[in-house]
């Protein structure tokens, strides 16, 4: 009777069949490397099983040493492959996997350089015993102390499998942790217990490690059956869905026939709708132009009485200042200040309105001359104050709206001058630099600053953080900046801390030459007309003539 040998042949056949199945899986996808590791382990243990079976029937010590020496190599390849599988499938720790692999390779090297291998110094004889009616051989030998290194590798393998199973469990993959974790731990434990007992001569038994591999192979058999069952269930579900899909397609064909009948009437409705939209769009454009003209007229009509108030108060101060009491002169000064503020407010509202309706027209803007011109202008306007301007421009020509950009920088500079006038040594820096997204410009000062939590508030209409008595202004300047940047597809923001100054930024995205060419073609065919450029000289002329007539009278 050869019960043990036949059982080993059956087990080896299972290993081979399962290895070939998973080799086919890996060959079809070429992505599940864990299947390749499992295939290598199966084929290694098929070879190991044949050598182990030959070893159990060895008649002489030399024959036993021969098969033991060769069986050690595929056995270690299988162990490393199992550890590799646990690393890929259970996501074991990388350093534990490489430590175990290094130690196993080291044991293989030590095994190869020794005549009788790493397990035995010498096999003195071969013992014989009967197991399940079959006579099997076992070694009677002198153990090799280097064998301790192999046993330590087995203990490290148990630790590695246990750690990988716990990590898999914590990730929520409970089924894999239970199935593969339990199987690999039982495999490592059985190998670690059986091998030392036999190799150190503590028990007189043949080494039958082939059956221990079943603890590792069985989970993969279960997994294969689980996948096949899932595939069968999925196939039934797909058949049901296919039947429902066929029914749905028939319904869709009927619906398509009805839709074809409705397409003609729908096309007619679409044509009528497009015609209505075009007519209403044209009417809306006419109304918009009328509203723009009305807004300009109202704004300029509002400025006319302001000019009269300002002019008469100026005449009173010029001609009758000596006859007026101090309180009356103070009232006149307040009237002039209020009219100036009202006039500035109207100008700012007009500027904001122009940004709302004007079309963005990109053009090439040379930043350095623009910034230098604005800085020189502010120096002339505030020549009575010792302002320290620093220009730091590391950008050349950009694509943007020159008027909107100039207005935004001018408002930033006015803001910086205003909030540094109480600083002993006011310093204002204006800079620009290229970034990956476009160009960033900034105006930085050492003024009073503000709480950074309020940066969104200061860019709103009529939003002020300080009283008008302390710092004059209309509360529209920064709103104009934000609106200009929105029209240019850019953004505006600020960074500051109280009493630490403030930095205001503009970011202008990269433009395209197509926009520029389109703008240049539009300018050639339709030259722009600036209503203010036409109206403001006439206003100045009327104010001058009105004051001169009043002066003569």
Structure report:
With 553 residues, the chain is an alpha+beta fold. The protein has 3 domains: 207 residues, no CATH class; 129 residues; 165 residues, Histidine kinase-like ATPase, C-terminal domain (Heat Shock Protein 90), CATH 3.30.565.10. It has 14 helices and 9 strands. The strands form 3 sheets. A 5-stranded mixed beta sheet has the order 4-6-7-9-8, covered by helices on one side. It has a two-stranded antiparallel ribbon with strand order 1-2. It has a two-stranded antiparallel sheet with strand order 3-5. β6 and β7 form a beta hairpin. α2 runs antiparallel to α3, α6 packs across α7 and α8 packs parallel to α12. The protein is elongated. The C terminus is likely disordered.
Question: What's a concise summary of this model?
Answer:
With 553 residues, the protein is α+β, with helices and mostly antiparallel strands.
């Amino acid at each position: 009777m050869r019960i043990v040998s036949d059982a080993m042949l059956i087990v080896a056949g299972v290993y081979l069949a399962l290895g070939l199945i998973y080799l086919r899986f890996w060959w079809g996808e070429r992505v599940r490397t864990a299947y390749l590791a499992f295939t290598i382990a199966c084929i290694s243990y098929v070879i190991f099983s044949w050598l182990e079976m030959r070893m159990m029937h060895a008649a002489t010590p030399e024959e036993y040493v021969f098969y033991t020496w060769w069986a050690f190599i595929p056995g270690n390849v299988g162990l490393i492959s199992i550890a590799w599988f646990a690393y890929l499938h259970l996501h074991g720790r990388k350093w534990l996997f490489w430590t175990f692999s290094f130690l196993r390779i080291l044991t293989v090297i030590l095994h190869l350089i020794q005549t009788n291998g790493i397990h035995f110094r010498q096999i003195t004889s071969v013992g014989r015993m009967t197991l399940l009616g079959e006579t099997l051989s076992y070694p009677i030998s002198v153990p090799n102390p280097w064998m301790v290194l192999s046993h330590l590798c087995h203990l490290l393998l148990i630790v590695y499998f246990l750690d990988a199973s716990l990590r898999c469990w914590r990730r929520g993959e409970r089924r894999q942790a239970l199935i593969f974790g339990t199987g690999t731990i039982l495999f490592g434990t059985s190998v670690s217990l059986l091998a030392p007992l036999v190799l150190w001569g503590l028990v007189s038994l043949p080494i039958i490690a082939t059956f221990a591999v079943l603890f590792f192979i069985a989970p993969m058999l279960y997994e294969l059956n689980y996948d096949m069952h899932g595939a069968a269930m999925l196939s039934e579900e797909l058949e049901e869905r296919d039947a429902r899909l066929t029914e749905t397609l028939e319904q869709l064909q009927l619906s398509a026939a009805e839709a074809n009948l409705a397409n003609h009437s729908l096309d007619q409705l679409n044509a009528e709708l497009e015609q209505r939209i075009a007519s209403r769009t044209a009417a809306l454009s006419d109304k918009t132009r009328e509203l723009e003209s009305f807004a300009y007229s109202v704004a300029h009509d509002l400025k006319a009485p302001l000019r009269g108030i300002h002019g008469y108060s100026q005449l009173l101060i010029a001609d009758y200042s000596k006859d007026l009491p101090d309180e009356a002169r103070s009232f006149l000064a307040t009237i002039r200040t209020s009219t100036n503020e009202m006039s500035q407010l109207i100008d700012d509202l007009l500027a904001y309105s122009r940004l709302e309706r004007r079309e963005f027209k990109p053009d090439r803007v040379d930043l350095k001359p623009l910034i230098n011109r604005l800085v020189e202008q502010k120096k002339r306007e505030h020549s009575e104050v010792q302002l320290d301007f620093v220009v730091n421009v590391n950008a050349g020509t950009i694509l943007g709206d020159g008027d909107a950009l100039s207005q935004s920088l001018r408002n930033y500079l006015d803001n910086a001058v205003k909030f540094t006038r109480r600083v002993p040594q006011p310093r204002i820096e204006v800079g620009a630099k290229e970034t990956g997204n476009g160009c960033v410009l900034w105006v930085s000062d050492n003024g009073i600053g503000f709480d950074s939590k309020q940066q969104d508030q200061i860019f709103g209409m009529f939003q002020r953080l300080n009283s008008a008595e302390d710092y004059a202004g209309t509360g529209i300047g920064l709103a104009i900046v934000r609106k200009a940047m929105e029209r240019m597809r850019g953004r505006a923001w600020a960074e500051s801390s109280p009493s630490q100054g403030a930095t205001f930024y503009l970011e202008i995205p990269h433009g395209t030459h197509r926009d520029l060419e389109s703008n240049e073609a539009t300018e050639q065919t339709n030259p722009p007309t600036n209503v203010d450029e036409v109206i403001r000289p006439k206003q100045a002329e009327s104010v001058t003539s009105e004051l001169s007539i009043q002066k003569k009278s």
